Amino acid sequence: MRLLIVEDEPLAARRLARLCEQWLGPGAPPLRVCASLDEARAQLAGRDVDVLLLDLNLSGEDGFTLLAEATAGAFLTVVVSANTDQALRAFELGVLDFVPKPYTPERLALALGRVGSRAATPLRTLAVRKGGGVVLVPLDSVAYIQGAGDYAELVLREGGTELSEKSLERLEQLLPADFFRIHRSYLVRVTDIRELVASEGSRTSVDLRDGTRLPVGRSRLPLLRKRLEA
Amino acid sequence: MMSSTLLAGVLALSLSASAAVPSVKEGQVQVHADDLPLEVALSGDTHGWRTVDRLEVNEGTGPFWLRTQVEVPAREAGAPTPALALSMLGSWEAWWDGSPLGRNGQVGRTSAEEVPGRIDAQLPLPPELSAPGPHVLTMRVSAHRLGFQPVGTLHRVQVGEAVALAQTRMFGLLPALCSLGALVLMGLYHLARVRLTRDALATLLLGVLCLCAATLVLLEAWRGIANYLYPLHPVRLRLLAGTVLAVAALLPATVHAAFGEPRRWLRWMGLGFGLLSLAFVPGFDNKQGVALGTSLVVSALLVVRARRRGEPGAWGALAGLVFSVALYLFEPWGFSDRGFFLAFGGLLLWLTVVHAQQQRRQQERLESATRAAERLQLELLKRSLQPHFLMNTLGALSEWVETQPAQAVRFIEALGTVYRHLLAVSGERTIPLSRELELCRAHLDVMGCRQGTAFRLKTEGVDLDAPVPPALLHTLLENAFSHNRYVSPHTFRLQGSLVTEGAQPRRHYAFLAPLGTGKGPGGGDGTGSRYLRARLEEAFPGAWGLQDGPTEEGWMTRVEVPA
After folding, report:
1. Which of chain A's ends, N or C, has fewer CB atoms near its CB within 10 Å?
2. Which pLDDT value is given to residue B181?
3. Smallest Cβ distance to A10: which of B388, B451, B518?
4. Chain B: nearest CA to A93, how far in angstroms?
5. Where is each Signal transduction histidine kinase internal region domain found (chain B) (predicted)?
């Protein structure tokens, strides 16, 4: 796991780095520490960061602007902050976890442990980068999500698409549980599925309520049937 | 037969008298300046008698003679025999239709021989000479002890039922006596409050004004209550005039103070005008009338000005004044002994109400100031508990505890110092600068530990005992830390200077927060700056200055307060 720590206070950064190193154990890729998101941008642009540990003073509005920008990135974000009253808003932006300061090594381990499973609180908004800024896409407006290599395309109910820098795998961790990976390239809300359709050549598809037909991966069919019958 | 002849004679006498002697009803009396023998004075002879206005009888010390026709009013059968009420500045003997009626004091040819009479007297009429119709009253008068030149010495000649005459006098006193208790109470109430209120001058003047008015009432009532000897009358008149003058001068002064009139000369205008006009106005009643009239006009002028300035309560005072002026115009010369008390009672009541309202507003201001002070205290404590500061500090502590316990103890010590100071000073209006510097240095210790570097606060030219609002510099430090990253040692500078030019010496402070890295300089997110301004206003109301802005070296904040 490749970690980047953004923390402007030397002592706090030292602690975060020390505890992460303990958790990762020897042989892990080296930790990188930056004092601000500005400094971190170059590192993040390289798409070789899996998890960003971000300390933000979320008491002001600009903290959230930075957070939206961070969550629009390809990596997963864990917020480490003193402003616990802002945790809910942070989760809505799509962070993997929110670690309130001061924290114990155990609490940090719990956050890092979420990487690869589900987020502490599923997101309701997806931040995507668009035209030099960040656009927040409400999850309700997304019809389904189609993978596009390292990126994911959010297909909107109104028509049109938005491109997320996160892969389908990472999105799956952040999205609520009713989003189901029906195929290597598709994430669909289970409640949006009208019926399973058998098409030619033992292929199976789903018809969504809006009439869209999407393919279902063979390996994923049994699990999908179980979900639909439940 | 005998009796009928007598009756006819009496009738003839009375008729002849009525033909020759002018009557009180027409407002005229006859006077004779010589001390005539009794039989000549009663003979009806007109030689040497002058007719004068009843209210302008002034024959000097006397003894002189006076005669006039007095009407006995018709009365029901069985009604009591009427009495004659006389008010005369002098000692006198009286005859009624030629028969002796009675005396008041002892008429004398010299001051030594004279025994002073009382100011008011009532004599019962002889039953046989009390038939309805005109009768002749003849008086021998001396007034050696007047001591001043009155306009007239005869004030009242009236025949009526004794009880009714007494009642008339009582009714004359009634308005004054009614307001007496109220005036005394109001006066004492305001005087008692002088020490307790902030608006001491207006309260004091209002109290003295009420007591002056009460004195006026007492002086008015004194005649009816004590029925003093006539030489005391001028004494009472002078006291009355003085009191009226005091009231006339105090009224505008009170209005002036109560409404915070900015122009001082207006306070003296009423008094000046009053005194000027008094010099040229004859007669006590007229002087008083003019003085009170002037007083009302000047007060009204002041209230109108207060109304224009938007002073609260001006409408009420204006209403009271308009009422008084109306009563004054209705009866300018009798105003000081009748309308005055009605008007003045009303006016004082208004002023008292206005004053009470002002007091309440002051109380509210005080309370809101107290609330503001509590809010500021709370705000300071809240800021020191800000999650960003507190949680990061605790996070740093966790790190020390896990890695360098000895360092942790030092850190806890610094933190304890910060909070100890904050708690101690948060409720104060001002604290000595030395205390503020201790708080700042403790805060810099904590921040230094957290940032892994050292911060210093250097002062120059400051008076360590000078009062400053609590957390003044502390807030500036916090602002600096929220806008800069200081990862290397930095020095904050405070320069003080005392400026003694002008009327008030002032202290100037210049606080320099050095440039670090990060967001760059700034005056804070607004809450810090708001807190600063509110604290300065609380400590030095309306007498402080605050400017800040970027300089080459960093963010400069200049504060100016009275020394």
Report:
1. C
2. 84
3. B451
4. 21
5. 377-453
